[in-house]
Model the fold of this input.
Amino acid sequence: MKTITLDEPFKLSLGESSLPSELAANEALVKVHKVGICGTDLHAFAGLQNFFSYPRILGHELGVEVLEVGVEAANYDISIGDYAAVNPYFHDGECSACRQGKTNCCTHMKVIGVHEDGGMRERFIIPMSNLYKADLNLSQLAQVEMLAVGAHAVRRSRLEAGETVIVIGAGPIGLGTAAFARLKAKRIFMIDISPERLDFVEKLGLAEVIDGKEDVVAILKEELNGDMPTTVFDATGNAKSMVNAVNYISHGGQLVLVGHTKGDLVFNNPAIHSRELSIHCSRNATVEDFKTVVDALKSGEIDVEQWITHRATPEELVENFESWTKPETGVVKGLLEFV
Ligand SMILES: [Zn+2]
Done:
């Protein structure tokens, strides 16, 4: 079967590997149809990803079809032929975070496609507890994990109806965050420094847009009659943006850091203290968030059909991956398709 491996930074190769066999009672063999490409994959490609070793099979945003099931399938309500999204997170169920129900930040978190081999291969074996079967198309299923990260950030914020919200960073995670935040917010702004991305947000009708290179504080004050937004999500992973975001937040408001960076964040204490600012980190997603996403896609409350800007076969992906890392290529969401 075709398998794409990231051998080392900047070296993606397409090869053949043997078919998996030997299903455990709680496992399923799945055929991978669609793989979403995300910032983590691009970072790993560029050699910038934390806690990452090579060689690695990437791929953690997956739309799959169940080909074979272990003997416990009935316990998981999984059958041959089901289409499913994949929860790529593996938690230990025992640590302090897991005991608090916060499996998304398990002390021993392992993510397939990051810490272990992922889904850029035609078939692989996965525990059935990590499959979410749903009556969605395979492209939608491949976007469930990405959206779950946004849904989790919004749930983490405890956003209330009628708030004014900013999402900084209009990549896929920012878009996912905005898609869920706008279901509650009175007004929602997205800030980015890429004109192409701002145009894309406007075209989707997802949020009002502000060019991050402009005087954002002045624009907000004018738009909001001197008030500032109460909840700001930063989905850039850029330390400068994350720290500067404080200036866009109302007194009594909150900052949710969805993106993350390797470096230190140094906040100005008067700026955060005068606001009595709450700063939250948001990491991965839980089962509850995956369910929220599947329901929102099913009901049509969230529609991601237009978010896919690029599709590639395995051969094309290996050939063109480097170009997908460049902003001028205009990739918002790229999909690898095994056909
Ligand atoms: Zn744990």
Observations:
- The first strand starts at residue 2 and ends at 8.
- The chain has a mean pLDDT of 95.
- The radius of gyration is 20 Å.
